[in-house]
TrEMBL record:
One of its GO terms (molecular function) is ATP hydrolysis activity. InterPro entries: P-loop_NTPase (IPR027417), Sigma_54_int_dom_ATP-bd_1 (IPR025662), T2SS/T4SS_dom (IPR001482), T4SS_GSP_E_ATPase (IPR050921). PANTHER family: TWITCHING MOTILITY PROTEIN PILT, TYPE IV PILUS RETRACTATION ATPASE PILT. This is Pilus assembly protein CpaF. PROSITE patterns: SIGMA54_INTERACT_1 (PS00675). It comes from Caldanaerobacter subterraneus.
Amino acid sequence: MSLVDRSRNVNLSKEIDINLIIEAVRPQMLEVAHTPDFKNILTQKVKAYIEENFPYYKPQFIQIAEEVYDRMYGLGILEKYLKMEGVTDVLVFGTRVMYVKDGQKIKGEDFKDINEIRVIYERILASAGQSISYAEPSKDAELPDGSRVKVIIPPEAVEPYVILRKHSVLNMSLDEIKDGLKNLEDRIGDIKVFIKRQKFESFSGTLLDYFKKAVKERKNIVVVGETGAGKTTFINALSHYIQPNHIIAVLEDTRELKLPLPYVFYLKTRDEREGAKAITYEDILYDSLRANPDRIILTEIRTPIAAYSFIHVLNSGHRGSMTTIHADNVRMALDKLEMLIKEFKPIDDRTIRRLIAKAVDIIVFIGLEEDEKGDITGREIKEVAELNGVDEHGNYILDYKYVRW
């Protein structure tokens, strides 16, 4: 039965068919995913559809829109954890739920059975225009608010796993995050372990002063750390000191940044889907360069093409750009950059190091503090180093401004 026939039957019987409305509005909502007033847009589309097709139900459109939203995007018991202040992650192990709040891992309310969680993850994927199956048992998606979701089911997993990384925009400056990020008020040159110095220390001041000066002087900065270390939050804090008339291109594979600046292009990659080609880093990089941005911010280097593209572009200009990378210290970050670039394009070690050294000015490592149970108790800056080229043997010349372990 066609949508038209079903609509006619509904008006004759005066019984609302929520699934019919969902089928009608879902394609339209895929076009506006991650828009800030996403729910209001859905309400207006439901209202327009009811006015055209179900005029009998016009007085009830708000309640109908709420039910449509719940059925399309509602996450059951997971909703309350995602709405909690301080929650960063929600994880589902079969029917068991655990959430991370202010660094602490806390047991949540369990689902009644596997079917209940199956409804949730299929709803999440459907809202993103995807599906999961025995043939494709692992999928990535985003919630309408930009939160990242990973779903893994059998046969890849023993039981269904759902990993939600909550999207939160912390639009705070360095001064505002200093209470949550230790050592920002320590002084440059405060080395807690022995490091051979390569040159005379010319800057005198705190790390806070150093980073503000570095951003204003358009130094290229790489922020290093584990998952959850606050790398993206730190990048966002640095952006408060960018000149207000600079044009910024933000390149992401998931929506993470919201800069306090007026002239920003936010561009995002996309995996290939049925009926839609992939949008790659090469695509968004090419498109951003047409705008001739003053600076480029790549939220995280995760893939070989992202590593190569970022270093390649910085060697062509765009001073004052920033990115993050997952690693356990400054030197390991450089090793990982090399490895990723080699995966994308076979280049000899010395050439790669020269390219990296020319592109990167400052590397910052942010570490996590844990208690005996494995809960995060704090975040701190552990290393700050300037990359001053390579020596005659092709080794990096690193000038450590700050080390604290």
